[in-house]
Amino acid sequence: MSDEELMTQVRNGFGEMLGVLFDRYHVPLFNFYLRLTGDRPMSEDLVQEVFFRILKYRHSYRADTAFRAWMYQIARNARMDHLRKRRPETSLEADMSPVIEPPDTAQQSQEAALLHRALLHISEDKREVLVLSRFQDLKYEEIAQLLGCEVGTVKTRVHRALQELRQIFHQLESGKPLQARGPLGTRPSSGSVQ
């Protein structure tokens, strides 16, 4: 049964179908949050919050809407609400180890850890679009719908984020010092908007 069919059943009062959606998406959502925040306990709490909100707002789901896009919009809103409540009291250098599918070799493990560190050093907007496109496997059209922009804009943002991630990864790999960062891993403002 498709995600959309399951969510339609949840909307129509068959709450037990939410368990099937939870089984499908709790790990991807956890990874989404972990890659954005680096905080395991917060990520676990946010996953629970998303499924609570899915149940609470089930009547707002439209059958012609892609479930994943709708769910990730709820996920983004839950994270933003959480951040507003507890503005930055945590460090982004928290636990960034992969959740599932551990690498086969020590070198792959080191590269994965380095990649996650690099991911935390790019701006939050770039990190989010990369996580959605590369780790959560959302299509550009879904991301555009989620972010309220054009598909071309998403492609540009992903491209720029990948360039910056690659640069930071190589700096970390070579042991070169990174530029100073502002709160939440963002670079200090240089007056330009991307």
Overall shape: it is: globular
Specify the CATH homologous superfamily of the largest domain: RNA polymerase sigma factor, region 2, helix turn helix motif
Architecture of the largest domain, CATH level 2? Orthogonal Bundle
Number of helices, where a helix is a run of at least 4 consecutive DSSP H or I residues? 8
Helix coverage percent = 55-70%
Structural class: mainly alpha
The count of DSSP E runs of length 2 or more, i.e. the number of strands, is 0
Distance between the termini: 40 Å
Q: Give the domain tally.
A: 2
Which stretches are poorly predicted, pLDDT < 50 over at least 5 residues? 89-103, 181-194
The largest sheet is: none
Question: Can you identify the CATH class of the largest domain?
Answer: Mainly Alpha
Radius of gyration: 18 Å
Q: How much strand? A: under 5%
- The secondary-structure element order is HHHHHHHH
Mean pLDDT: 81
CATH topology of the largest domain: Rna Polymerase Sigma Factor, Chain: A
How would you characterize the overall build of this protein?
The chain has helices at residues 3-11, 17-37, 40-56, 67-85, 106-120, 124-135, 140-147, 151-174. It is 64% helix and 0% strand. It folds into 2 domains: 3-85, RNA polymerase sigma factor, region 2, helix turn helix motif (Rna Polymerase Sigma Factor, Chain: A, Orthogonal Bundle); 106-178, Arc Repressor Mutant, subunit A (Orthogonal Bundle), CATH 1.10.10. With 194 residues, the chain is mainly α.
